[in-house]
């Protein structure tokens, strides 16, 4: 009975749902997994099989599925206020969340502007940068700069500052031209070079561009410490320090996309804390609601906010959407922040990370692996001579071994929730290696 039910869910989904980031024809050979329920770090299908969610369901689920504390907060909020428009109205959850996030930046950033997803937050930051320069009488500053291999979302504005051909090339005619500079990816180090040397070379490329076009550039956007979607490209914090100084020198805004790398993922709550700098705009999404509800936001410096503050409506920032600052999503975010504080999560993660790093040593030292690397609660390994279908084959084998992992090209990465116990950590490491060896064996058979 259960098997028939599972097959029915798959068939119905394939008939009615267009799945994201998916070539639907591939599901003729790689079946969908219909999830019945989740608990802790695990997802369960209709036949009782479970899958360790080692990528936090696309990097969002920080404290496990069906977390009792977040559940309780949402149930309480449901009985109070589910939604109210934020234009002309306000409410307690959005006020408290904005205050607490500003406090986490030491009040260097504030005035939170809310949206629903990461790409929308990037769109907001780009528009705010452009519009604030116009309001300041510098309308010539209209260009944006991104890093080679960067990913910031797939809406039209966000895609313009994305440099991943798979996502961007088909829509090139729709996109605004953007300047692209060298990535500080430490894997580019020449013999004898350090990660800092690569970061300095990349910053020099920014300096060259700013010297040439600084009067035309509105902002540069960076995913700090880890460029995730390009294959977990990691860089030294000195890059952020150098670019911050260049932005100050040339009057260019610094936008930091912390959608994936914020909320403790790199070891500090905000990744930029490790460089000792703050941007002009900081984008958050994904983990901020604990993986429960769509929520994103942009924090900005007070001088940005003041550039829009006027009796003139046309000088205001008029971006909006109907669910801006939704109370339920904000309450989930507040419950998430509570867990960070009550469980001393950042310190606890250091112990989890040390154990998982040790357990992953056999994979890191594998003859078919290079560039084993780690940042906070992110691990990545590049497979050697993996072949063009490696990621799909690895994903399929992982599900057979009760593991949810989706490599990016040849890069195997782990971004697990912050709740794994010792047994789950050891099991995750062992299965990650086992899946890798089985995937290689299958390709060579």
Structure, explained:
The chain has about 450 residues and is of the alpha/beta class. It folds into 2 domains: about 1-65 and about 345-445, Aspartate Aminotransferase, domain 1 (Alpha-Beta Complex), CATH 3.90.1150.10; about 70-340, 3-Layer(aba) Sandwich (Aspartate Aminotransferase, domain 2), CATH 3.40.640.10. The protein has helices at about 1-15, 55-60, 70-80, 90-105, 120-135, 155-160, 165-170, 195-215, 240-250, 300-310, 325-340, 345-360, 360-365, 390-400, 420-445; strands at about 35-40, 40-45, 50-55, 110-115, 145, 180, 215-220, 225, 235, 255, 280-285, 295-300, 370-375, 380-385, 405, 410-415. The strands form 4 sheets. The chain has a 7-stranded mixed beta sheet with strand order 4-12-11-10-7-5-6, sandwiched between helices. The chain has a 4-stranded mixed beta sheet with strand order 1-2-3-15. Strand 2 and strand 3 (about 50-55) form a beta hairpin. It is globular. It starts with a helix and ends with a helix.
């Amino acid at each position: 009975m259960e098997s028939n039910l599972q097959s029915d869910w798959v068939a119905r989904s394939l008939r009615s749902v267009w799945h994201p980031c998916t070539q639907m024809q591939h599901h003729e050979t790689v079946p969908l997994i219909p999830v019945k329920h989740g608990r802790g770090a695990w997802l369960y299908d209709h036949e009782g099989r479970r899958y360790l969610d080692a990528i936090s369901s696309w990097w969002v689920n920080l404290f496990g599925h069906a977390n009792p504390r977040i559940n309780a907060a949402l149930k309480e909020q449901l009985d109070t206020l589910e939604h109210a428009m934020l234009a002309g109205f306000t409410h307690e959850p959005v006020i408290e969340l904005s205050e607490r996030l500003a406090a986490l930046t030491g009040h260097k950033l504030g005035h939170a502007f809310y949206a629903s997803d990461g790409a929308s937050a990037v769109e907001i930051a780009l528009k705010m940068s452009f519009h604030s320069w116009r309001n300041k009488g510098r309308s010539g500053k209209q260009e944006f700069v991104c890093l080679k291999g960067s990913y910031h979302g797939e809406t039209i504005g966000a895609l313009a500052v994305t440099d991943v051909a798979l996502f961007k090339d088909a829509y090139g005619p729709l996109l605004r031209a953007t300047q692209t500079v060298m990535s500080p990816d430490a894997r580019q180090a020449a013999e004898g070079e350090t990660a800092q040397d690569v970061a300095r070379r990349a910053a020099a490329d920014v300096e060259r561009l700013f010297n040439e076009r600084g009067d035309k550039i509105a902002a540069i956007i960076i995913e700090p410490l880890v460029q995730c979607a390009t294959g977990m490209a990691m860089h030294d914090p000195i890059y952020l320090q150098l670019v911050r100084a260049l932005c100050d020198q040339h009057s260019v805004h610094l936008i930091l996309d912390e959608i994936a790398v914020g909320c403790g993922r790199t070891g500090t709550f905000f990744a930029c804390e490790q460089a000792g700098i703050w941007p002009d705009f900081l984008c958050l999404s994904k983990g901020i609601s604990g993986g429960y509800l769509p929520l994103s936001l942009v924090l900005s410096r007070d001088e940005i906010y003041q550039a829009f503050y006027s009796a003139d409506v046309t000088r205001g920032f008029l971006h909006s959407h109907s669910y801006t600052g939704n109370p339920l999503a904000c309450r989930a975010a507040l419950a998430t922040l509570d867990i960070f504080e009550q469980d001393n999560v950042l310190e606890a993660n250091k112990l989890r990370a040390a154990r998982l790093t040790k357990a992953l040593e056999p994979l890191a030292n594998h003859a078919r692996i290079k560039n084993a690397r780690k940042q906070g609660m992110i691990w990545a390994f590049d497979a050697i001579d993996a072949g063009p279908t490696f990621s799909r084959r690895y994903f399929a084998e992982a599900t057979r071994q009760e593991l949810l992992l989706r490599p990016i090209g040849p890069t195997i990465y782990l971004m697990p929730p912050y709740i794994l116990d010792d047994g789950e950590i050891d099991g995750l490491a062992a299965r990650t290696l086992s899946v890798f060896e089985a995937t290689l064996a299958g390709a060579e058979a």
